[in-house]
Specification:
The protein is of the alpha/beta class and 458 residues long. It is built from 16 helices and 14 strands. Belongs to the class-V pyridoxal-phosphate-dependent aminotransferase family.
């Protein structure tokens, strides 16, 4: 509980060149409305209360010599580095965009911003198919489960849920709430269902859809999507392929069109790098057709695509529309985060996460520690779930890490929650070359374990 309370207080980040890009794009978007007088948010207009002298913040950066004056420094208050599997650290420009003045959710400036955001999501998911459809709703990643269950299944349907941890159990529970029977195909902790097992299951029953958690946040297990999708399309072509990408979108490659995925759900607060509060879904044309041909109306109101599909189409076409009020400030934050992500090739972003992951996992092994995902092909690139030494529990280690300026998460898998901790390494902590979050975290872990009596192998 103490760790949960602390999780909301958290690292100084250097400014990115994208902050000026953000200001320029903000002006450009608002110029779409002739009746609007653009007022860009300038860093220098922010309150000076939390600005720190360079001497107080250089420990957070690899190259402090780049910071020449206080006006170029982060506006965030000093805080421990939040290195859990989400929420993650945020870039200054993303947080600044949250301070956007109030505006009409059906006015041209905001509609333009929302439309651009939906278009950028297509690039993030790597889809150019006009039949695919992005949805952005106010809510957490969990709302994505409801969207899938309410719109792509009907009462009495059968679905196959591939189980790699806690979140498969929860997705299955969501289906059951809608009168859908969820069959789970489980693997041992730290592993994932194998293709031959999946093929056997698909041949035994007619499943409306199959779900897979790309990265299960409870175990750090990464599932292989491309080969799975090929198998499903070959063995059970009418089965929709649904990916829970809450902890993977933005740090693991997802090629929506090339891999013939039907639906990916995610949220803003993990590798995308924006504050929590938006549920994001990308649906294929085939998924939309399945929704439109259903025999019964969706057993939901807010999550119903009957209500949201025309709204999303209108927003993307830059046309004002209304069903329920979106969060303009969160949409601005998402727009800024996506602008930053897409400012470089996605391949570079994914490579940076792979390199950081390799570094973390090498250091963990050198400490004599084991991961829940013992096989390299099962290990996520955005997080690492680490078994603690025998007889040690998260409360023995996490407070020491906090004192050293980093925050890890405790275990989540109900069977082994007291035996491991979770280290999130994604987003700005990885992509910003001026940050040394990972290095400090690894040193804190080594020193923290030593302080409680653990002796690492020589």
């Amino acid at each position: 509980m103490a760790a949960a309370r602390l999780a909301g207080t958290f690292v100084i980040t250097p400014p990115r060149s994208s902050s000026s890009l953000f200001r320029r794009s903000l002006v450009a978007r608002h110029l779409h409305s002739q009746s609007f007088s653009p007022v860009p948010i300038e860093r220098n207009s922010l309150p000076q209360l939390h600005r720190k002298p360079i001497a107080n913040v250089h420990r957070h950066h690899r190259t402090p010599q780049r910071l020449h004056s206080t006006k170029n420094m982060s506006a965030q208050a000093d805080h421990p580095a939040l290195l859990i599997p989400g929420p993650i650290e945020f870039d200054d420009a993303v947080l600044q965009s949250m301070s956007h003045y109030s505006e009409s959710h059906v006015g041209a400036p905001f509609v333009n911003t929302f439309g651009e955001t939906l278009g950028m999501l297509r690039k993030l998911f790597q889809t150019t198919d006009a039949a695919s459809q992005p949805f952005v709703l106010s809510g957490s990643g969990t709302l994505g489960w409801d969207q899938v269950a309410a719109n792509l299944t009907e009462p009495g349907d059968e679905v196959l849920v591939l189980h790699t941890g806690y979140f498969a159990d929860s997705f299955a529970d969501c289906f059951e709430a809608y009168g859908v029977k969820a069959t789970q195909l489980k693997a041992p902790i730290g592993d994932r269902p194998q293709l031959d097992e999946i093929e056997k299951a698909l041949k035994e029953k007619d499943y409306k859809l199959i779900t897979v958690t790309h990265t299960d946040t409870s175990t750090g297990v990464l599932s292989e999507i491309e080969s799975l999708s090929k198998l499903v399309h070959k063995v059970s072509p009418n089965t929709l392929v649904v990916v829970d990408g809450v902890c993977s979108v933005g740090c693991e490659e997802i090629r929506f069109d090339d891999w013939s995925i039907d639906c990916v759900l995610t949220a803003t607060q993990k590798a995308i790098g924006a504050p929590a509060g938006l549920s994001i879904v990308m649906a294929s044309g085939r998924a939309i057709e399945r929704f439109q041909s259903r025999k019964t109306p969706p057993a939901a109101y807010f999550a119903s695509w009957k209500n949201w599909l025309p709204i999303m189409k209108n927003y993307e076409a830059k046309k004002p529309s209304y069903f329920a009020t979106p969060s303009p400030q969160l949409i601005h934050a998402l727009h800024t985060a996506l602008t930053q992500i897409l400012s470089r090739p996605l391949s570079e972003r994914f490579q940076l996460h792979r390199e950081a992951s390799d570094k973390v996992k090498k250091a963990v092994t050198e400490l004599g520690l084991k991961q829940l995902a013992s096989k390299r092909e099962n290990q996520a690139n955005g997080m690492t779930a680490i078994y603690l030494p025998e007889g040690m529990a998260p409360p023995d280690v996490l407070p020491s890490l906090l004192k050293k300026g980093v925050i890890f998460a405790g275990g989540l898998h109900k069977e082994i929650a007291t035996k491991y901790i979770r280290f999130g390494h994604m987003g700005v902590s990885i992509t910003d070359p001026n940050r040394d979050d990972v290095d400090r975290a690894l040193k804190a872990l080594k020193d923290g374990l030593a302080e409680v009596g653990y002796k690492a192998p020589n």
